[in-house]
Design a protein that fits this description.
It is a single chain. The protein has one domain: Beta-lactamase (3-Layer(aba) Sandwich), CATH 3.40.710.10. Helices cover 34% and strands 15% of the residues. The chain is built from twelve helices and eleven strands. The strands form three sheets. Strands 1, 2, 3, 8, 9, 10 and 11 form a seven-stranded antiparallel sheet that branches. Helix 2 crosses helix 5 and helix 5 packs antiparallel against helix 10. The protein starts with a helix and ends in a 5-residue tail after the last helix.
């Protein structure tokens, strides 16, 4: 009787358990697009009447995409396989950057600088000088230094191992046009990529804060062994150097040039909450800086047309490929930065997968019952052990 009374009284002392907050419904998925469209030759675009079509540019291949959604707004010969030059360093960074601590020191040895292609762009590494890994990455992104790529590839398991890992990363991401022969993008027979693949690499890379910071840095100091010297980003849209106006809202990514590839460029810019990625491969007129002006015109068109243009494709990797890319052999950058779609929290994911089993009051009742039983037991023990009055 006493136990029942105590339990009933205790129930009134238990605060009501608030219901779990309801997670908002996920946004509706974008309507599917026909992946075969981007494999067609010529310009692919879908804009309503009254919306301008993309500007006429001379590049053999180009693409404009929304970095957040992955929607391809327009493209020309998106899957045409062409030499990528140093834009392939973006894939190199996706492969090697996550596994190397930026603060790790490394002293360069003579053998690490052997085998660099003749005429390569260099940041100026010197043997017996100690650099941090972050210094080496600035040498890659700003100076397009093939010497820095050589050393980082060595730290990543070696030149051939890095080549294989880059190829695995590309395949895991669904980049089917890319064939990696030289991690630095130096001209080699059979080394190709495409406007589509390069835009996909940039989209993944921009999700990583380190990648995004390196590719957007215009100038930096570089160690010279007891002194330092200035280096600048060779992407003129980032620096505004050499008579090329800096693009408003530019956030990277990478330019390249070889005699075989011509001029290549991946450019990303952010405006009014939207981030666009543009790839331009081998303009055929306009001189050495035409690649920047053609990218500028495509970015301008993309920002103006994006609210109304209908996607003609998507940079989204297949689910199985994305899962493979997350593995240790080919680890793409984690999804963290603003261009990436928001990921649900671990709590939200747990709630989404947990069965709905009604109000969660059983646990508090269990504690109340235990407390009541303990109180009744104590009362009974005291009654037996307390001597009767004299």
């Amino acid at each position: 009787m006493i136990v029942s009374s105590l339990a009933a009284a205790a129930l009134f002392l238990v605060p009501a358990v608030p219901p779990l907050p309801v997670e908002p419904a996920p946004p509706r998925p974008a309507p599917p697009v026909d992946a075969s469209v981007l494999h067609r030759s010529g310009i692919q675009v879908r804009v309503p009447p009254g919306t301008a079509r993309p500007p006429g540019v001379s590049a053999r291949s180009w693409l404009v995409a929304d970095a957040r959604s992955g929607a391809v707004l327009a493209a020309r010969d998106a899957h045409k396989r062409l030499p990528p030059a140093s834009t392939l360093k973006v894939l190199f960074a996706l492969t090697a950057l996550p596994g190397l601590s930026p603060d790790r020191p490394h002293t360069v040895s003579r053998h690490e600088l052997v085998g660099i292609g003749e005429g390569s762009s260099l940041v100026g590494l010197k043997e017996e000088v100690t650099y941090r890994v972050a210094d080496l990455w600035r040498g890659v992104f700003l100076s397009s230094g093939n010497d820095a790529v050589r050393v980082l590839a060595g730290l990543n398991g070696g030149w051939q191992a890095t080549t294989r890992k880059m190829q695995a990363t590309a395949e895991a991401l669904g980049a089917r046009d890319t064939r990696v022969v030289s991690p630095d993008g130096y001209d080699e027979p059979g080394q190709v990529s495409s406007a589509y693949d390069l835009a996909l690499f940039a989209r993944v890379g921009l999700r990583d804060p380190d990648f995004a910071r390196y590719c957007a840095t215009p100038y930096a100091k570089f160690p010279g062994g007891g002194w330092s010297y200035g280096i600048r980003n060779t992407n003129r849209l980032v620096t505004g150097d050499d008579g090329v106006a800096r693009y408003p809202g530019i956030i990277g990514v990478k330019n390249g040039y070889t005699s075989n590839a011509g001029h290549t460029l991946i450019a990303a810019a952010r405006r009014n909450g939207r981030t666009l990625v543009v790839t331009v491969m081998n303009p055929r007129r306009g001189g050495a800086y035409a690649v920047y002006e053609e990218a500028r015109r495509l970015l301008d068109w993309g920002f103006a047309a994006a609210p109304r243009a209908h996607p003609v494709g998507s940079l989204q990797a297949p689910p199985k490929a994305a899962a493979t890319a997350a593995g240790p052999a080919a680890s793409p950058a984690p999804v963290r930065a603003a261009p990436a779609p928001a990921r649900p929290s671990a709590t939200a994911q747990a709630r989404a997968t947990a069965p709905d089993d009604g109000p969660h009051v059983l646990l508090p009742l269990t504690f109340v019952s235990s407390a009541c039983i303990a109180a009744a037991t104590l009362w009974w023990v005291r009654r037996r052990t307390t001597p009767p009055p004299e």
